[in-house]
# Entry
Amino acid sequence: QLACPLDLGCHSVYWDSTMKFWDPRASSPCVATVPQPDRVYTMSHADNRVVVGTANRHVYVWDIRSFSEPEQRRESSLKYQTRCIRTFPDNQGYVLSSIEGRVAIEYFDVSPEVQARKYAFKCHRTSTNGTDTV
# Structure
């Protein structure tokens, strides 16, 4: 997966458990390679954060200004493998979905008041002409 937010260069994630940051203006375009603990399935970005969904239902929130440690380490609240992560337009959190059709709403702020607002739901599927529709 590849994402290129404005004026931040690009970042990409791989199944070889790495996240790379690219600056096409630099003489060596790959400016950083950050190892991840597991295979990376999905990612999204919000301002200075990159949210990475990995194998074993782990979610890592990275600050792109410092690659030494993830800003947050979380386990997905969903029961099955993470399929997709997307950050909110207001950069306050993210949505993640799993292979079973569940969706979770999560927030970056770890205060109990904000965390009380998170929730999950299951999308309803119908089968039309042999095709599953959500």
Observations:
- The chain has one helix and 14 strands.
- The helical segments are 112-115.
- The mean pLDDT is 84.
